[in-house]
Design brief:
Length: about 290
């Protein structure tokens, strides 16, 4: 009886294995099948094609002329398929993974370059696309509601490091030689402030220290604020897990007070191995010991 439906292509693999082994016992073992199951698969293929593919003998099996014709057609196709799979896996190993990272400008001089350098060395498949963004811009990019006014249930956050605040002052400033300062010591200064949520948090910290900051200029990047401080226009605050790099004409003095957590956040369901690698590298770059 001939099965008029299209043959089940999944049956071609056991057909080829049996033709190579010449034995149902050996072929079943190679395929991790019970021998009766393999016999049923071969019989089903023969029924679908309407022709016997093997001659069964007490010493084993061998191909009929029809079986030889089928094998001659199927073998090259399977070899081509194996090559295609191997090439696809090789491409997958070589393919880069786009990693888009938004970060506040204060991380640009130290932590972000360290992260990029370690990732390039240890995870060359990760292609970083870096963009300076304020906290508010980062939240908007994640399509989340405002940080201060809404539940962040959609945002996953892990701590990367603990940061200190540093007062950035002109090198000739009377406080430039201090080892450490209270925020209240800057009450009479002219302030260059960042914009957005960071400004709101900093103004709140000043008020907690007993004064209202006299803001003379706003800027949205650390580079811009540093340039303004160097002109003598005022002072600004730099937040980082690492001491700020030395800049000609500028002094940095650490502020007393609690350390501020530096976090990385994401939404949705990112690649878990990518995420773990990025967090590990970011913590290493910020010199924070791994959590147990």
């Amino acid at each position: 009886m001939v099965d008029g439906s299209a043959p089940d292509l999944r049956l071609l693999a056991p057909f080829l294995v049996l033709s190579e082994e010449g034995s149902f016992t050996r072929a079943a073992k190679r395929l991790s099948l019970a021998q009766p199951a393999l016999s049923q698969q071969i019989k089903r293929l023969e029924t679908q094609l309407g022709v016997e593919l093997f001659v069964r003998t007490p010493r084993g099996v061998y191909l009929t002329p029809a079986g030889e014709r089928l094998a001659a057609s199927v073998y090259p196709a399977f070899e081509e398929l194996r090559r295609g799979v191997a090439e696809t896996r090789a491409l997958a190993q070589e393919a880069t993974i786009d990693v888009r990272v938004g970060y506040i400008s204060s991380l640009g001089p130290d932590i972000v370059p360290r992260i990029a350098s370690i990732l390039a060395r240890e995870h060359p498949r990760f292609q970083l696309r870096l963009r300076v963004m304020s906290f508010d811009e980062q939240v908007a990019a994640l399509r989340l509601p405002d940080y201060l006014e809404a539940d962040l249930g959609q945002l996953h956050v892990v701590e990367i490091a603990r940061c200190r605040r540093y007062a950035l002052l002109p090198a000739h400033h009377p406080l430039a030689k201090m080892v450490e300062l209270d925020l209240s010591a800057l009450a009479g200064e002219r302030w260059i402030m960042p914009s957005g949520t960071y400004r709101s948090n900093l103004v709140a910290a000043c008020r907690t220290s007993g004064f209202e900051p006299r803001i003379v200029q706003e800027a949205n990047t650390l580079d811009a604020m540093v340039g303004l401080v160097r002109t003598g226009l005022g002072i600004c605050i730099h937040v980082s897990a690492l001491p700020p790099p030395e800049v000609t004409g500028l002094a940095s003095v650490p502020l007393r007070g609690d350390l501020i957590p530096l976090v990385t956040g994401w939404s949705g369901s990112p690649n878990r191995s990518l995420l773990s690698a990025f967090i590990e590298v970011a913590r290493s770059a910020a010199r924070l010991p791994q959590a147990a």
